[in-house]
């Protein structure tokens, strides 16, 4: 049992060692709104760890704004507008930017335009992976599948998917030396503080996106880039080059990373809790109904941050205007007061109202329906093909307190 004074949710190494959960448990039990100091130049943050408190913060954008940025980095005031994406935008402007491509991600549109394609792509991915009896599940399945979906949405060559994966790794894994030479917490990152993730690689992503946009301006394409290039936001204010840059960067990351880690974490859970794997194999209809439980368990994003706009009381603590307030979604998804026996994967668990995508928030993940479809299709195609699957080496995790990611998941399989 970890003591409160030993907790540090800013320590990336603890997350890489998968030690976050005991810290979350202690905080929910003893100090659900907890002040976590940080090393300079940061000033510390409030950790909100209980389900209901997280939900309340995420819905109340007037008290807890995204405009001061949504990760733990404290961005200089003069750089905020340069680096601002839709994630760091509230109110009407946020709404109209979402509306530019939101229809593409509606469940109806996805079923009409993408489900058949996605199922065939899933079959192809599974076929190629199961051609070997031993492989890295992340490399062959979790990373390969979502990035091909993203390539279709963006209408970019499949030959570019390796580069897109590498860029996503470097951005989201910007605290992991295996993923980047430009670590967020290194002194050298100060040179790149004007760029998202403090990484010069971000400029490569910007250049790639702008070239695609410029080639599609004035065209009649229906891909996401064409829509961003040719649609005027509903408030009549055109997107600037920087607006487009940051929107495109977000698509590259969000369109790949979260689904990838959700699939990896779900598969690891099924390997470690084989009774649940057997249930899904014996009754494949449980895959659709058990999907929300898999997403609760996976919790691919540990946290998002908000900033208090006024002094407010929560959990017996006084949060002051300007304080960072961090919603630990992964902790909320293990809240014992909401989910009985939360560390047990239960694909028959009823009414799994998890926080994974930002339940009830104006910032609800725009691609949540796509992610659900991708995860469902993958397990509908994969699990019936498996007679057996087991770990075949060490599971390694991303050194990050933002993404709950797995870098390597070596498995041995025996196909049916």
How would you portray this structure in words?
There is one protein chain. The chain is an alpha+beta fold. 44% of the residues lie in helices and 11% in strands. It contains 19 helices and twelve strands. The strands form four sheets. A five-stranded mixed beta sheet has the order 1-2-8-5-3, with helices on both faces. It has a three-stranded antiparallel beta sheet with strand order 4-12-9. Helix 14 crosses helix 15 (274-282). The longest helix is centred in the middle third of the chain and has 16 residues, at 201-216. The chain is globular, with a radius of gyration of 21 Å. The termini are far apart. 43% of the residues are buried.
Spatial strand sequence of the major β-sheet: 1-2-8-5-3
Number of domains: 1
- CATH A-level architecture: Orthogonal Bundle
Classify the fold: give the CATH topology: Cytochrome p450
N/C terminus separation: 43 Å
What percent of residues are in strands?
5-15%
What proportion of the residues is helical, as a percent range?
40-55%
Major sheet description? 5 strands, mixed
Record field, number of beta strands: 12
> Count the helices. How many?
19
Q: Which consecutive residue ranges, at least 5 long each, have pLDDT under 50?
A: none
* Helical/strand content category: alpha+beta
Radius of gyration: 21 Å
CATH C-level: Mainly Alpha
Question: Quick check: average pLDDT?
Answer: 95
CATH superfamily: Cytochrome P450
Shape: globular
């Amino acid at each position: 049992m970890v003591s409160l004074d030993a907790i540090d949710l800013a320590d990336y190494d603890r997350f890489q060692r998968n030690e976050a959960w005991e810290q979350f448990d202690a905080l929910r039990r003893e100090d659900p709104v907890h002040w976590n100091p940080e090393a300079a130049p940061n000033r510390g943050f409030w950790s909100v760890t209980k389900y209901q408190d997280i939900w309340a913060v995420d819905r109340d954008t007037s008290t807890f704004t995204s405009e001061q940025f949504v990760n733990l980095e404290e961005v200089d005031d003069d750089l905020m507008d340069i680096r601002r994406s839709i994630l760091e935008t509230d109110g009407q402007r946020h709404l109209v930017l979402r509306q530019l491509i939101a229809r593409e991600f509606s469940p109806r549109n996805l079923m009409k335009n993408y489900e058949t394609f996605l199922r065939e792509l899933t079959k192809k991915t599974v076929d190629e992976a199961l051609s070997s009896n031993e492989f890295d599940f992340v490399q062959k399945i979790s990373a390969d599948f979502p990035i091909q979906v993203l390539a279709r949405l963006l209408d970019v060559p499949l030959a570019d998917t390796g580069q897109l994966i590498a860029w996503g790794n470097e951005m989201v894994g910007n605290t992991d030396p295996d993923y980047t030479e430009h670590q967020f917490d290194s002194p050298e990152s100060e040179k790149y503080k004007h760029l998202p993730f403090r990484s010069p690689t971000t400029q490569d992503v910007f250049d790639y996106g702008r070239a695609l946009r410029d080639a599609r301006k004035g065209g009649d394409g229906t891909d996401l880039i064409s829509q961003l290039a040719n649609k005027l936001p509903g408030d009549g204010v055109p997107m600037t080059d920087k607006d487009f840059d940051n929107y495109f960067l977000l698509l590259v990351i969000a369109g790949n990373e979260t689904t990838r880690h959700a699939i990896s974490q779900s598969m690891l859970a099924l390997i470690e809790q084989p009774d649940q794997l057997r249930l899904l194999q014996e009754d494949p209809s449980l895959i659709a109904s058990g999907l929300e439980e898999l997403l609760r368990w996976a919790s691919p994003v540990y946290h998002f941050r908000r900033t208090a706009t006024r002094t407010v009381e929560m959990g017996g603590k006084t949060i002051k205007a300007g304080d960072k307030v961090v919603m630990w979604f992964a902790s909320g998804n293990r809240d014992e007061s909401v989910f009985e026996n939360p560390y047990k994967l239960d694909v028959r668990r009823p009414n799994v109202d998890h926080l994974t995508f930002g339940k009830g928030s104006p910032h609800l993940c725009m691609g949540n329906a796509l992610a659900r479809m991708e995860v469902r299709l993958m397990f509908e195609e994969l699990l019936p093909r498996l007679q057996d699957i087991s770990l075949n080496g060490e599971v390694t995790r991303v050194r990050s307190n933002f993404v709950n990611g797995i870098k390597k998941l070596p498995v041995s399989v025996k196909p049916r």
